[in-house]
Amino acid sequence: MSEASRRWTGTIAWILLVLTSMVLIGYGIGRADWHIWLPNPADQEETWIGSRYIFAGCGLSLAAAAWSHLRGNPVWVTVCVGLPGVLVGWAALVQPYSLLRHVAAVVAFPLAMAGVAKVTWVRGRRQRG
What we know:
The protein is mostly helical.
């Protein structure tokens, strides 16, 4: 297997990890919904099920950030890829029934996609700086 082929294989796997984390977070946010007041017990259970998806996605986001650092991507790419895990995870812990998770996702998802675009743009080569 050539060097370019291995580089692209690792890059595609990393991109899929980032996208999977974003899909899990998005699905969890959609499933958890948001409530103005404390929801009834059935909706609270649904919120906790959605929160599990959110936390799984946040864990994958942080793993993608660690992998990004090990791959030698620029620091801003590593930070942007880890932002959904940090911001949405923090929001889900602090306010599990509010719109804070949605706002954190709206802020963090485009930045994570910018990091993926940068890595794709440089064709998976290691770029520091």
